Amino acid sequence: MNKNHFSITDMTRRDMLRCSAAAGAGSLLLGARPAAALPAATGKAKSVIQIWMWGGPSHLDTFDPKPGAGADYCGPYTSPIETNVSGIRICERLPLLARQADKYSIIRSMTHGINGHETASYVTQTGRPAGTGDVYPCAGAVVSRFKGYDAGYKGLIPPYIVLTRPQGRFSESGFMGLRYKPFATGGKPSASVFNVEGIVQEGITEARQINRRRLLQDLDTFGRKAEGQAGLTGMDACTEQAYDLILGDAGKVFDVQNEDPKLRERYGKNDFGASCLIARKLVEAGVPYVTINYEGWDTHKKHFEIMNKKLTEMDRGFSTLLDDLHQRGLLDSTIVWWGGEFGRTPKIQWEAPWNGGRGHFGKCFSHVIAGGGFQGGQVIGTSNATGMEVDNRPVYPMDLIGSIYEQLGIDGAARLPHPQGLDVRVCPTEAEGVMSGGLLKEIMS
Amino acid sequence: MKIATFCLMFAMAVGSACQAASNKACDEIDRLVFDKLTKEGIPASEYCSDEVFLRRVYLDMIGTLPTKEETLTFLESKSLNKRSDLIEELFKRDEFADYWSMKWCDLLRVKAEFPSKLWPNAVQAYYRWIHTAVQHNMPYDEFARTLLISSGSNFREGPVNFYRAMPAHSPEETARIVALTFMGIRTDRWDRDKLLGMAAFFGSINYKGTAEWKEEIVYHDPSRKLLDPETNMPVPLRFPDGTLAEIPDGADPRPVFAEWLIGNPAFDRNIANRIWYWLLGRGIIHEADDIHPDNPPQNKALLDFLAGELESHDYDLRHLYRIILNSRTYQLSSIHNEANQSDQTNFSHYYMRRLDAEVLIDAICQITGTTESYSSDIPEPFTFIPENERSIRLADGSITSPFLELFGRPPRDSGFESERNNNPSSAQKLYLLNSTHIQEKIRSNGELLGITDKRYTPNKQTDRLKNPSAWKPPRKALDDMYLTILSRHPTPEEFEIAKAYVHASELSRYDASIDIVWALLNSKEFIFRH
User: What's the whole-model pTM score?
Assistant: First the structure.
């Protein structure tokens, strides 16, 4: 072969030198210009798994059934079931979750009053009111700031993962920018090979990867001429780091094929079930924030038809996730957050064109929170007899998100990095006009 | 002294470059830049080669890679004016309007969803207006004036969406965005009264719905005035320079503001500086949208000259593009010399930047003969983008892909230039090196891989491919790859490296060819504008 070849060892050493000159290694993964480094946040919880119910699930047909409200509200779901916590009843389509109720708490008084997807998604995931002139980062991006690379996270797997695609409703990292965006896996989690874009590639052997890498180095004639220029600095370190992930074992965390078949069956062999299992593996590997974007809950039409199918799938994946985390002793350090941007109209829209659908409903809805220091087996707040109004103990998005931050040891008074240098707190104060019913102290231990 | 001699020789070597365009203006740009370099004692880099110029000017002007055929035509042309002729040709390309509409849509925050919430129909109306303006080279003063004074339906009058694509519908917020967009000024550096005085010009804007879903009328409502939140009294109309405006009671104050703005030096300087930034990668005032007294121009005479050119040429933005692109300053090599490597502000060489997200995926698609699928099933009405449409033509910032997100496409939230993030990251490297998405694209173009057999189907290594006659001769195959991907011929050394790879590895010619294309796509020469 060509005489100019560097041996792999030489190349690595050379790049290592350049790498350390350019920047600290892990910090390169998600785009340059890191804000100042931080001490790692330490709290009861180490990680968050967010099951994002994309589209807005009905609260009546999940965790806040209203059997007394009549057929116009309940449709076919007239017989909620008892859970393993006396006094708590949930939708009859969630029998497995009913057996795990001691592990989670239900918030039945979530409210923000917004009925548009994009604004409600923004408000629910950032805790901030809309229309302030700035786009604030969502909880995952904030956690990525305080528990990710800036705070000493060393993992090769990015600190904020989305299974499988970003939502597109708003920019998750807001003004904090690219560096704090989630890493979207792409691919199909339940496929025989889950092709995580960039990390897992079918059919290229390790030997070929190594040969390719050498070829790339040899053919980079332009890069050698331009070496040392500001615009290119960091590129080689980025390549080096990418190869650590391509050639190393870290990517195996996305592979569920070698997991216990019985466990996979329990999670459900569909994308949601596989995502829940992978989320557990990611958390086990130290990833601080995983979002499962669970699509298909915007049920304007064919509502009950869709619910009959999807609730079963959700029941399996979600309940197995809780149990599996618990069995492995991970639930105490992992927050599981279930919820969407709003609930759905309690009164069923029987008229055309909906023909038995439910619309958007931001005035009153339910979220579920478990693990990471949040007590299970509790119900926070109540809605009225029809689920139309919050009766007591309203919980605004910032109350929930602020509670999650506190469990993670993220100081609400700390500041977020802002590109124009504005002074922005992690949690807004009441003076900033953000609605609040207070942190969820009643279930925080 | 030594540097002056160098510059003189340099000037002689490239003297013919500006012939077709405004010679004198190009020369003046170069004189101002080189005077500064001489003063700082920084030698300029060499004049760039035709290959480099071709690629650079395509990417900078139309956000599109030259094809193999375009590359050969240009490289083989013996015309002395071929660079300036090419610049004129590129102005006429549809991609010119596409690419610069994309830039304007970033600044004007064109997106259907949060926070602009324009909705798909209005995005289309707004985009069409912007695209038409760029395509027909609408004078810039008219462009700004129309955005500032329009009234009407968001679905029918494209430019009224300027007032809808605001993070908040308040006069103060509007003033903040107007100052940012048209003056490059951040009002958070202003005192309260200055902002309120300007906001008062937008105090009578009102919005109302119609019977049509998500239609909204933007109009001047004489009954509305901006009230001072402290005194509850109407705020007098005061221009940012402190002078008061007098208008008849009930008249729309926006045209009065527009005329003041267009007559103000900040208006010309902002756009002149931005265009310089867009083409050269660094503003004369940097950042280009943070103009304030403590952030002076790096070369004041140069900025004054460019702003003056704009005014004396009736706000013809293409004139500014033309004189910059034809200048030798723009046509310097990106390769540094020993004495100018650390220069990042004086334009002693062309500063390299990673390709924009949209441009990069378009280039990969063009090379591999593939397309991207874009659609939005939120919000209604659903939007599906035709398969063969380029990513630089995406009107709606809410329609996106994991690739575009990963490579720092701006979210169009704030209108700041810095929203576009072209910094390389290792997650991006992972994607280019190892994603199925890119891998499949490389496999799909048999011609690029060197296969002459028309029956080639991706991912199938049929027996036919074992036959050498199904393949281009190796030298030709590699030449085509280089021309298609890097817009140049390979050097003999590169040919030897590639040949050695095919022979030494255990791979079939098919797999080895895939690997060579893969390596070129991952080279810095491909990923960066240079």
Answer: 0.90
